[in-house]
Amino acid sequence: MASQQATLTILGNSGRTFAIDVYAPDGAGTQITFNPSGPAGATSPSTFRIPESGVIMDYAIAASPTATGVVVYRNSGAVLGGALRHANQLVTLANRQKLRIPVQAGDFISGVQHA
Asked: In the 8-state DSSP scheme, what is residue 98?
């Protein structure tokens, strides 16, 4: 497969929803990149700073790239429950896994794809 676009959805404690565009390169061991204000691409930042405390509610990807999934990191540490399989998070799946990964304002999140 080729690189893919995805969306990371964060629900803030205020009730505000943040939809962050994600770029998943075509390869294991690569970092995903983020853009909160437009399409993410290969040159987008590999970290995203959480604007307010809340939870990561959803990760929806268009199709699965060569890598089988992504491990989510918060402040450089792997997040418990943050190993996501791309095939389980496809936008076409009405019953894709709903996430409740807690995040705090100011946290930096990143993700590395795995084989």
From this structure: P
3-state secondary structure of 74: strand
Enter the tokens of residue 37: 């204000």
For 41, left (φ over 0), alpha (ψ -120 to 50), or beta? beta
Least Cα distance to 66 among 25, 110, 31 occurs for: 25
Say how many residues make up the chain: 115
pLDDT tens digit string along 7-50?
999 999 999 999 999 999 998 999 999 999 999 999 999 999 99
CA angle 100, 106, 111 (to 5 degrees): 55
Task: Using a cut of 0.70, tell me whether the model's pTM lies above it.
Answer: yes
| Cα 36–Cα 48–Cα 103 angle in degrees, nearest 5 | 110
Q: Check if the beta carbon of residue 34 is closer than 8 Å to that of residue 73.
A: no
pLDDT at 1: 60
